[in-house]
Structure formats: structure tokens, C-alpha cells
Amino acid sequence: MREFAYQRAARVHDALLAVAGDRNARYLGGGTNLVDLMKCGVERPTRLVDVRRLPLDGVHVAPGGGLVIGATTTNSDAAAHPEVRRRFPALSQALLAGASGQLRNMATVGGNLLQRTRCGYFADLSRPCNKRLPGSGCAAIAGVHHNHAVLGHSAHCVATHPSDMAVALAAFDAVVRYQSLDGGGEIPLSRFYLPVGDRPDLETALPPGALITAVALPGVPGSLRSRYRKVRERASYAFATVSVAAALDVRDGVVRDVRIAMGGVASRPWRAGSAEAVLRGARPTPDRLRACAEEALSGAEPLPDNGYKVLLAKNLIAAVLGELAAAEEVG
Amino acid sequence: MSPDRTVGAVGASRPRIEGGLKVTGAARYTADVPMPGLVHGQLVTATTSRGRVRDVDASTALGMPGVLGVLDHRNAPRLNPKAGNYFGPDGSLLLLQDEVVPYAGWPVALVVAETPEQARAAAAALRVTCDAEPHDLDFDMDHPAARPASTAFGPEADTGDLEAELAACAVVVEERYRTPEESHCAMEPHASTAWWEGDHLHALDANQGAFSVSEVLAALWSIDRERVHVRSEHVGGGFGGKGVCGPQMILASMASKRFGRPVRIAMTRAQVFETTSSRPRTEQLVTIGADADGRLRAVGHRAAYALSPLAEYIEACTEQAKVLYAAPAIRTRLTAVPLDVLPPASMRGPGATPGSFALESAIDEVAERLDVDPVRLRLRNQPSVAPVSGLPFSTRRLVSCVQEGARRFGWAARDRRPRSRREGPLLIGTGMATASFSAGVFPSTASITAEVDGTFTVSVGASDIGTGARTALTAVAADALGVDAGRVRLRIGDSDLGMAWGAGGSRGTTSWSFAITEAAKELRGRLGDPARPVTATVDTSALIDFQPGRERQTFSAVFAEVAVDPATGEVRVRRLLGVFAVGRVINPLLARGQVVGGMVMGLSMALHEESVRDPRTGRLANGDFAGYHIAAHADVPDVEADFVPDYEPLDPSGFNGLGEIGTAGTAAAIANAVWHATGTRQRTLPIRLDRVLEPVAAGKDTEGATEGADHAVTRGA
Ligand SMILES: Cc1cc2nc3c(=O)[nH]c(=O)nc-3n(C[C@H](O)[C@H](O)[C@H](O)COP(=O)(O)OP(=O)(O)OC[C@H]3O[C@@H](n4cnc5c(N)ncnc54)[C@H](O)[C@@H]3O)c2cc1C
Ligand code: SF4
User: Fold this and answer.
1) What domains can you pick out in chain B, each with its CATH number?
2) Is the ipTM of this complex over 0.90?
3) B40 CA: distance to closest CA in chain A (Å)
4) Could you read off the pLDDT of B5-35 as tens digits, one per residue?
5) Residue B294: pLDDT over 60
6) What is the pTM of this model?
7) Pocket test for ligand 2, best of A37, A116, A119, A145 (most atoms within 8 A of CB)
8) Residue B631 Cα, gap to closest chain A Cα (Å)
């Protein structure tokens, strides 16, 4: 058993100080990812600073109709919150599509954003992995990569980001708020996760030692409909093979606004900006939806064993947008 | 319950005797039993599929807190190399005897410490260097090392002239089917505690047969079996994965010998995946020919499975080809392919489960080519005697199972054209399969003592691995003694209770019941002085007729309905119905639990389960429950099971086993339903979504999708 210090922070500043003073300290949210990684030896912190009791939980309506979700809000509470369900149904659905009831009761919003990849080699200390041990190589490229990335990967790492929640946040242009000893800041989700490049171990733009305090969602028009659909290898309790968070605002038969983000396809939630442009201002005909889906995957570079994800992602985008467009006609 | 009610415990539904203990946590499993002076062992396993251990550097580990020592091939006690299992000599029992690494997951060292945490920490600090050698995991029916499988379970079938019959057929189907390596995934990880008292070895162990484990240990240590005492009171599932003497048991006995303390080894889940045996991969070629009127003329079934060169093993995939259908020509060929793999072991419905997927899929393909209803095709080809042996069946209620199943399932209304049913974007299909599973009895002993207080103590070396055996045998004993079940106390799970077959081969209950029934008969003849306890003991070895001149099998018909989303490839089973003929049912509640559980396992095999290995190292890439998917609750639909009235004339009480028949048949029924839904055959398990996915035009298939969220296929999303 590797020993480590544990402390519970009562104030944000205490937490920041505790982590700043110890290079190998980590914040502890629900522990559902960090503790697993400690058990298999991937993470070896000397100190855990428990942030779950910090006054950072709860969902608040911001001026302009947006929401601010505190970093220590549990995944269950965030999913169940009436304002989340009303304004951002895809976010609630994404949260509920993740893990299991027990895990969601423990997991926090901050921890969810920072959970690590589920690439099996990342957790297998006997194999090379650039994300775990920079420069050691990537075992997945010539190994098992059936559920790895088809977009935005590099020759150094082909892992995907496992979070469902983050995919919906990407669709809604969320912003991550943090505090550090140098002050506070905000990072749009679109820039929060770094491109893989040659340093897959560097995953986010969060400054060292910073504590995530909240996620802010800008307001959306009441006519924006959204939906999250997750395809996986069993009906529940599995990570996404491919998932799609989409939002559509159709008025007078014309698409005013559309947001498409994919999960399970890249090292981060993948916002399909150019595909959105195909649809914006157009009528959502089946052909247009298909063209939009094609565009979303136009840059895909599948690996030898995961080519199916490209077709799956296209089909899923077309299906989810089709459902939203059909609901639009009815509603 | 009336106190003087004396008959009729068999046939009544009763919950498990130990159910209350289990749900309150009071029942103690092997690793829960407290023990003074206990120390703990942690395995260190090989990460390559073939090689040699060059060095085990324990210098750091030995200096760590609580560490008693490290066992490896240089200092471990020597074991008898001739020790074996059911099939003969078994090299996989000979742990830490030399430097050879025969498969990934092979134990190369054991660290022993005062606490499990200390043992684990020290194990992580152990530096094992291995020289990897090229390994061979390329499973293929035509692999150069392929050889005929052992015929210990009976000869191959070779009746009639297969080629001549095929040449005369109107329709011939010849297809290849593949099933993956699978893991048993019992809830309780393998665990043992061992200690020596002089030259007596004592053990608590999670297994499916304490007696046979005691025999293997006695052989390994070259001591009399009477000096080995193994107890296994509660076992949290086995499915065949605890049928053999496990590595944890052998290593605990070695460590205890070495360190003179009781040693417990409780495997981690990852170790259970990588170090305990699995269901082997299979590749099967089925050739079936039929006349235009649907009469089968030829059934050919070739099946190959992977095994380890360390031990013999039979995955009898071709058995049902000898049982299910009448045909003038039937030929089976079973092939073993030795590779550098984890040694396989029986996994619920061994042989029959992967075999039935191939055979019953192929029969469905014949029905498709002939454009006949698959139920009718099956009913048309029922044999009057066993088609290969020519022996009569002792009982064969398969037709009743099929007819009753078809009626309940509403089969008659089915449009047999594929892709003929839609609900919104979903394609709906139904399919069915039949199955048989070999039944029988093996020698066992039972003792019954009539106590002075009017109760009876029944002792039999049975194991209850969660099946409800304890409860079923209590009912059997009560009826055999003609007393209320409340007066019967059962002692099981102990090798000192005498020779007994284990919980396996669907022969546990029949074997133990036979011994109990005979002991009761003898006891009833000897009851005299009520002031003294009287004991009767019977060994059924000499009573069993191993050549009964009749084929003894259980049968089933399984029906499935699936919903497929062609856009995503997701398959969800909506309904599953199994109708079973398994002799006289001892306890309908527990029996239903067994066959429903079996069907769920079959569903899981059809859609989810697959051990994935890294191509370079051969190491499991998904050896945990997040990666190795078994069906979750949301995957399990409305499952219905029932039994047709049946009686096994070869059993004194009319019983047959039913632990495994539930698993066979289900995968084929689901695969056939997926074909009916989509028009595409799925000949490789599991039916993963990437194997089903089709290009779908937007609009066409998203019509009516407004209620999409309510479709069964997205349930739980
Ligand atoms: C079996 C299983 C199945 C799962 N299935 C899914 C799934 O289907 N979909 C899905 O999306 N997820 C899934 N998960 C992952 C789960 O969602 C995450 O483990 C969880 O969200 C992490 O939250 P946590 O609070 O427990 O994080 P922790 O484990 O406590 O922390 C994770 C990381 O975040 C850091 N951290 C935590 N809080 C903060 C903060 N406020 N500021 C800065 N850093 C912080 C920690 O230091 C650590 O590095 C699954 C997990 C398991 C174990
Ligand atoms: S894909 Fe990334 S996480 Fe997986 S082995 Fe390669 S470098 Fe490591």
C-alpha cells in the first residue's frame, strides 16, 4: 500500500495552498476515477485534497438565461436539476448516460471534466503509453484500438476522452471557470482540452494547481431543442462508442442555429463546426442532414480496426438531427 | 406446514435455505472466514504469452513491512509432476516449478505478507525479468498444429455417405461460424486459505467440488487423500471456472508449507480474468444438405477449439449434431489447436453452447434457402431413435418444447421474410433454436444419520455454488426418508464427507440425489432402536449402469425477439422464452432461476462477451468489468422460462440436470432473430454493433422518430 496524506479543504484558498505546496498533490472529487488510477499505479499522489465539501456545489441561473454549475455538484444532482433539464436537455441526458447511478452520486462536475482516458494500455503499467509515460510509445496503434479515435489523433496517441457530459457542454459553448493562487480565470470548453500533438500527457489548458470552480453555460433561445444520444456496446454502463450532442433551432422551416458535438471519436469532445455551417440557414431536408453528417466526418482518419466509427458517427448525427427536426415540425 | 406432512417436498417451490444468510451478509465465503495467525499471498503474473523467467529480484520486496517472503520457481516446494485433472496430466497445476512461461497471466511469483495490503505493495515492488519468446495465438481451424480432439467423451459420428448425400441435395448450406474466448465471470473471485498440521493439509477454497480438489492436492503433494481436508461451504458462482483445483489453492498450500502459517490468497478481479481458465475460441464449419421438401439428408459439423499444450481438454461442440436431427449421413470432426493460451475449462454448457450457435444458425439458413418456417423444418426432421448411436432416447420431449414455445411466443403469426417488420427506425425480428444437453450420473457417496431427536443428518460431498443445491437436496432427502424437510439437516461442501462428483456437467444434482436416495432406502430398512443414532452410507459406484442402452439428454426450445437499429447497429433483445424438458423438476423456483440465468448468459454471449487480447503480447486487453462486457440489467428483457412435464426413466427419482441447458440455444435464437430483422447473417459472436451497422439514408429511417426516446433500443440511455 502506497501511503498518502489526506486532507479536506473547507475554503477554496486552503485547497489551492495545499496543492501548491506539494508537487504530487491532487484534488479529490468523488474519487471515482482518481482512486481507480491510484489502485493500478497510474496515479501516485502523495497528498489528496478533498474538495467535495467546498462551497462550490449547486446550479444557479445566470442573468441572460444561462446556468452556472458548481464544480462539486454531483453528476446526479446536475442531471436532475429542473433548469438543466428544461434549458439544456442534452446535458441532462448526457450525464444520465454516463456510468451508473452509484457512480453519478459520487462523481463531481469538475472531476468528470478531468477524468482520464479508458484506453486499456494507459492503465497497464507493463505496456508503453505516451500519455502515461511520455516518450515510451503508443501500444494502441499496433494493438487493440477498436474503440479509439478517428479524428484529431496523432502518431503519439489515439485515445478518446471518455466523458459524456463534456460532449454536451461542448455543444452548448460552455466555459470552465477556475481559481488559482494567481487569481481566477475562464477557459471556453473549445480550448479547454489541448490538441494531442506530441504531448498526449498534457491534456488541458488549466494552469498547474488550478481548481475548477464551475462550468458556465451561456443562455440559449427557448426554441433551441437538444438531444444526446450515446451508442455503446451494451444498453447501459459502458463508455460511448460514438455519442452525439446536437441542438437545433428551426424557425419557419429554416435552421437558425445548430450545434453538433461528438464523443468517443477524439481525444476531446469534438465540435463539428464546418458541419454546422452546412445546415445553418438551410432547410433540414434528409439530404441536407446527410450532407451535414458527411461534412462532420470529412476529416476522419480511422485506424485499421475502427473504421466503423465513421459510418456510425454519420448515421448518428443524421438520426439525431432528423429526430430534432421532426420534433420541431410536430411541436 | 403441517408437522406430519411426510411427502411431496420434491416439486414444491421453496426459496434457498441459506438465502437469508446470503442477503444479510452472514454467509461466509472462503475469503471471509476469520483465522488466527493468517498471512496473505499476492500473485505476480507473467505479462508475455511465452518465455522464460530470467530473474526475480526480491531485494526491495523482502525489506518491505510485513513481508514474510517470496516464492518463485527457485525456492518453491516441489510438486508431483504426474498430478492431473479429469482429463489426465495437467501441466498448468505445476506452478513455480520451472522458469517457463506458457501463457500471459501465468503466476511467476507469490509474495506473502502479514496483511493483504502489504503483500500487494511488495508484489508491486518485485522485479521480474522475462525473456520473451515468439508466441503463437493465431487460432485457425487449419492451423498446422491442429490435431484430432480426444474422444474421451465418445467417438466421432460417421454414419452414411456424407458426400453422396450432399450431391443429391436440393439445398446445401456450408458456412463457417466463430465464437470468441470468454471468461466465466463468477461474482466471487477465486480464493483459498491453506494450512498444514503436520503432514495434513487443510483448506478453505472456492470451488465446485471439494472432493476432487482434495484429490488433486493429494496428488500434487504425493500424500494420501485422507490427509487433505478441503471445505467450501458457500461459493459465489463458478460456471465451470472453479471446477478445477485453482492456482490460488495450489499456491496457498505451497506458501503455507514454506512459511508455516495459514496463507490466504484472494485473487483480484484482474487476476481472475488473466490467470483462471476460460471458454476457448472456436471455429466451426457446418454443412447441411436437404431435399426440396425440407428433409435433411446430410449433417456435417467440423469444430476446432484452442487449447493449451499443458493439459488435455474437450470442447465438445459437435455433440448436438449427433442428437438433434435425423439424417442418413451425419459426420462430426472435432479438432484441438494447441496454442500459447490460457488453458480452457468448461464454461456453462461447454461445447453445446458454442456448438449450438453454429448448428442451429445453419439449420435456420437451410430454412431460409428452402423458404420454409424454421419451426416446421425442425419438426419435420425429428429422429425416432438417436441418429448416430441408434439407441432409443430415454425421454425426448423436444417436440413438446417447440410446440409449447411456439404457441406462447405467438410464432404462428410470424412473417418469415426478413426485414418484414419495422417500428419507426427499428427493424424487428424473431428467431428460435433448439438444444440438447447430455445428462447422466456419476458416482458419489452419501451418509444419513437418524438422530435420536427424530431429525436426520444427511452428509454428501455436494457443492452449492449458488444454484440452490442445498435446498434441492434437502427436498430429495426428505421425500426419500418420508419426513418433513424441516427434519433434514444437510452437510455439504466438505471433502471429508466422502467421494462425490462436483457441481458440473449438469450431473451434480442427479449424482448426489442418487446417493442420498439409496442411503435413505438403506437407512429405512435399519431403523430400530430410536434411542441410538443410526447411520447408513452408500457409495453409488457399483450401482450405476454406465451403458444403459439409451441416450440420456435434456432438451429445450428458445425463442427470441430483437430490435435492431440499422443506423447504429445496436441490437436489443426484447423477449426471450425458453421451454425445457429436464426430467422431473425438484424445485420450480430454483429451476427457473437456473434456466433464466442460463438464458441471460446466452444473451450475454450472443451480444457482448469477448476476451480481447493484445496482438503483440497476447495479454488480455479487456480483463476487467469495465472492458469485458456482460449483459447489464438494461440488456435483459422480459425473460420467460417453463418446463414441459417430463420424467427421466434412467434416474430412480426421474431427475435430470438443468444447470447448463439454459445457456445452449439462446445465442442461435438471437442470431436468427437478428437475421430475420436485418436480412444479414451474423456468423461471428458477439453480434457487436460494428458487425450490424448499415449505411442508412437520413430521412427514410428517421421517419416516425419523434418518439425515438421511447424505443426499447434507447432504453437506459
Ligand atoms: C465503471 C465506471 C464507468 C463509467 N462510465 C462512464 C460513462 O459511461 N461516461 C462518463 O462520462 N463517465 C463514466 N465514468 C467516469 C466518471 O464519470 C468519472 O469517474 C467521474 O465523473 C469523475 O468525477 P470524480 O468527481 O469522481 O473525479 P475524481 O476521480 O475525484 O477526480 C478526477 C480528476 O479530476 C481532478 N479534479 C477533481 N475535481 C477537481 C476540481 N474541482 N478542480 C480541479 N481538478 C479536479 C482530480 O484531481 C483527478 O485528477 C465511469 C467511471 C467508472 C468507474
Ligand atoms: S492511445 Fe494514448 S493512452 Fe492509449 S496507449 Fe496510446 S498513448 Fe497511451
Assistant:
1) 19-27+442-543 (3.30.365.10), 35-134+187-237+242-276 (3.90.1170.50), 158-181+279-439+549-692 (3.30.365.10)
2) yes
3) 14
4) 445 899 999 999 999 999 999 999 999 999 9
5) yes
6) 0.96
7) A119
8) 7
